[in-house]
Amino acid sequence: MGETITLLSQREIEKMRRAGRLAAKLLDHLAPMVKPGISTQELNDEAERWTKEHGAISAPLGYPGAQNAPPFPKSICTSINEVICHGIPSPERILQDGDIINIDVTPILDGYHGDTSRTFLVGTPSPVAQKLVAVTEECLRLGIAAVKPGGRVGDIGAAIQAYAESHGFSVVRDFVGHGISNIFHTPPQIPHYGTKGKGKKLRPGMVFTIEPMINEGTWEHTLLADGWTAVTKDGKLSAQFEHTVAVTQFGVEILTHNDD
Ligand code: MF3
Ligand code: CO
Ligand code: CO
């Protein structure tokens, strides 16, 4: 990541809206498939098929990894239970009653990225799992509500952290939201913890993701040998929700909504 935060033109924001709408529709399309008995590979394959059918490309497929990691091998991320993020779909991983699964999609449409994720309940997860998912969804809502022109990046993390910790949960530090446009991951970084009034100033035309990962226990992670899958260090649960948003002249616009 470089230093410069690009401000998008109205024309570019319209392209981000189209990509974002497609990403939201893809999650809506996958949602009814999330049932005990389906494999994460089947979810992946349907996402890949649907994305192509709609004239888009799956950004995760072949996305370069860090240092020694291979490129990401699949089209979506499927992160179940103790997996914080970047879970790799597999025919061996069959959804079971009681799982929670985050599905993270990023189609590229006309060169621009729509990045969004939700955590789904499979059957009936434990009360603490259900509470974690509900708190995490509210963390995303509060983070988005903290965005306004003239505000600061730290306002977002402060709002998320206060709410998560008030429920006894922890905020993942090692993965953050990111600027996004025709580039998947670009400045600024958007931590989901922090201090109100600190950090870079929010300006109209900035477009970034907010994607809090909230853990039942410790926020620390372990990276699996595949170079991608991040799991909680204590094996407890993790949930995540993500939207791509634009700072507007007056406030904030969620780009990854299905407005049909
Ligand atoms: N969609 C993820 C994010 O929210 C990134 C996935 S990168 C991948 O930033 F290579 F793992 F797909
Ligand atoms: Co994502
Ligand atoms: Co993202």
In what range is the share of β-strand residues?
A: 15-25%
Helix count equals: 4
How big is the Rg?
Answer: 17 Å
Unreliable runs: none
Oligomeric state of shown chains: single chain
Main sheet properties: 3 strands, antiparallel
Q: Which ligands occur here? A: 2-amino-4-trifluoromethylsulfanyl-butyric acid, cobalt (II) ion
Number of E-state strands: 17
Estimated structural class = alpha+beta
Strand order of the largest sheet: 1-5-6
Order of helices and strands: HHEEEEEEEHHEEEEEEEEEE
Overall 3D geometry? globular
**N- to C-terminal distance:** 35 Å
Mean pLDDT: 97
Secondary structure: helix percent: 25-40%
Q: How would you sum up this structure, described in words?
A:
By secondary structure, this protein is an alpha+beta fold. It is built from 4 helices and 17 strands. The chain has helices at residues 10-30, 40-53, 127-145, 153-166, and strands at 57-58, 77-80, 83-85, 100-105, 107-109, 112-113, 116-121, 170-171, 177-179, 186-190, 207-210, 213-215, 221-223, 230-232, 238-240, 243-247, 252-254. A 3-stranded antiparallel β-sheet has the order 1-5-6, with helices on one face. A 3-stranded antiparallel β-sheet has the order 2-4-7. α1 (10-30) packs across α2 and α3 (127-145) packs antiparallel against α4 (153-166). It is globular and about 45 Å long. Bound molecules: 2-amino-4-trifluoromethylsulfanyl-butyric acid (MF3) and cobalt (II) ion (2 copies). One cobalt (II) ion (CO) binds next to loops.
